[in-house]
UniProtKB/TrEMBL annotation:
Keyword presence, Hydrolase: yes
Low complexity composition-biased segments: 323-336
Top-level taxon in the UniProt lineage: Bacteria
Name used for this protein in its record: Carboxypeptidase regulatory-like domain-containing protein
Residue ranges, compositional bias (Acidic residues): 398-411
UniProt keyword annotations, A-Z: Carboxypeptidase, Hydrolase, Protease
Region of interest called Disordered, as start-end residue ranges on this chain: 323-360, 391-420
UniProt GO molecular function: carboxypeptidase activity
Organism: Candidatus Kutchimonas denitrificans
Keyword Disulfide bond: no
Length: 420
């Protein structure tokens, strides 16, 4: 072959290779179109086919899709991650056109099933303008679409505050079809238009973002019966579930008559505790000590608060009586400094955030009140049948010491002849 012809072939091959490489690089990065004024308006939905709440019996297997059309071109960025479809089995098939999305179940349409499609607010145009709110769409392949709903709030069981990044699933029984959605940033959710029947409703923290509750997720489960026109209110209190009962891990002497017993997990504050759950035995003679009462840490805290309030009320009463006596005698009562619990005007501290859920919060301690002061010496604390948040019972035993106070260990001064 002539040398000029070979050179021509080589030049053409290099040009084609460079053009292909440039095209690959261009596809790897989706950027805004150049030229013209900047676009700051997110895409707007202009048409959905078929309409929401439509019963579409011709959707079967891979035939048919729900089409969402927008008023401007939409970006390919993360397009498969922004579309969810329930009942959830896996991510749906999403075909993207210039201005539209066509969505269908990856496993195909099934007769007599209600489908929920949710487009997340991460969908955006080529100028990175994302839709402000999720798009919800419901269609059926045969079943009438009911007007029912599950509404409620997801709380953090430990703090009592609303959970700001929770999800809620409703698993239909017995076929285990799973519907769901994320709660909003106030922990609230509305899961509507579900097939009537019995459900296992699950509120959970989706740690690994796999759209299902795993054993390591903080969660709470409620059984729900839902009719076609029901509106059911749910309150989830999510926490990390234990697989074993609580174990005694610490003994702390609060004073000579109060012993705090710590555990390796959170206890159920509504499960009763009493003197039958705790035993304090002296060593080495194994003589049990009398216990007056046992309470959860929340009860102990309420007890301490009541003592402080009673003391403050006593001080206020004495101050009022002194002021009244001074007024009767014509004297001037010395103005007392305000108690430390009352703040000066203009120096108000922001109030502490109160738990959003009613009732006592869980803790990892109980407190035992002895019937008489604990003498110095060695002891063992035995605890049984203590219930944790998962409803499992446990306990354990630990040895501890009460050392003699310093004034009891000092040697008495010498007596007798020569003593001054």
């Amino acid at each position: 072959m002539p040398r000029p012809l070979i050179a021509g072939f080589v030049a053409v091959a290099i040009s084609l290779f460079l053009a292909a490489l440039s095209g690959l690089q261009g596809c790897a990065h989706v950027s805004a179109p150049r030229g013209g004024p900047p676009d700051t308006t997110p895409p707007s939905l202009v048409l959905v086919e078929p309409d929401s709440f439509a019963v579409v019996t011709e959707f079967r297997g891979s035939h048919g899709s729900v089409r969402f059309e927008f008023d401007e071109p939409i970006s390919e960025r993360n397009i498969l991650g922004v579309v969810l479809m329930y009942p959830f089995d896996r991510r749906p098939d999403v075909d993207k056109g210039k201005r539209d999305l066509k969505v269908r179940p990856r496993i195909g349409w099934v007769d007599d099933r209600i489908y929920h499609i949710r487009i997340q607010p991460q969908l955006q145009d080529y100028f990175n303008n994302a839709i402000p709110d999720p798009i919800e769409h419901v269609v059926s392949t045969g079943l009438p679409i009911p007007d029912n709903r599950m509404i409620g709030v997801v709380y953090d069981r430990i703090t009592g505050q609303v959970h700001r990044s929770a999800r809620v699933d409703a698993v239909h029984l017995p076929d285990t079809l799973r519907y769901g959605l994320p709660a909003d940033t106030s922990g609230r959710f509305t899961l509507a238009r579900l097939p009537p029947g019995d459900y296992l409703a699950i509120g959970y923290e989706d740690v690994n973002n796999n759209l299902r509750a795993d054993a390591f997720d903080r969660s709470d489960t409620i059984q729900v019966g839902l009719a076609a026109d029901d509106s059911v209110t749910l309150e989830f209190r999510v926490f990390k579930h234990d697989t074993v009962g609580p174990v005694l891990s610490e003994v702390e002497l609060l004073d000579s008559m109060m012993i705090s017993l710590g555990f390796d997990g959170y206890l159920d504050p509504e499960a009763p505790v009493g003197v039958e759950n705790v035993e304090i035995v002296s060593l080495p003679d194994s003589i049990p000590l009398a216990i007056d009462t046992v309470m959860h840490q929340s009860g102990y805290q309420a007890y301490q608060d009541s003592i402080r309030e009673a003391e403050q009320a006593r001080r206020d009463s004495l101050a009022a009586a002194e002021a009244a006596a001074a007024a009767d005698t014509g004297g001037v009562a010395q103005e007392a400094a305000p108690p430390p619990t009352r703040r000066q005007a203009g120096r108000e501290a922001p109030p502490a955030q109160e738990p959003a859920v009613a009732g006592p919060l869980p803790d990892q301690r109980i407190v035992a009140f002895l019937a008489s002061p604990l003498p110095p010496g060695s002891y063992v604390a035995r605890v049984s049948d203590i219930v944790n948040l998962s409803g499992l019972t446990g306990g354990g035993e630990l040895e501890f010491e009460r050392e003699a106070p310093e004034d009891e260990t000092e040697e008495p001064p010498p007596q007798g002849e020569g003593a001054s």
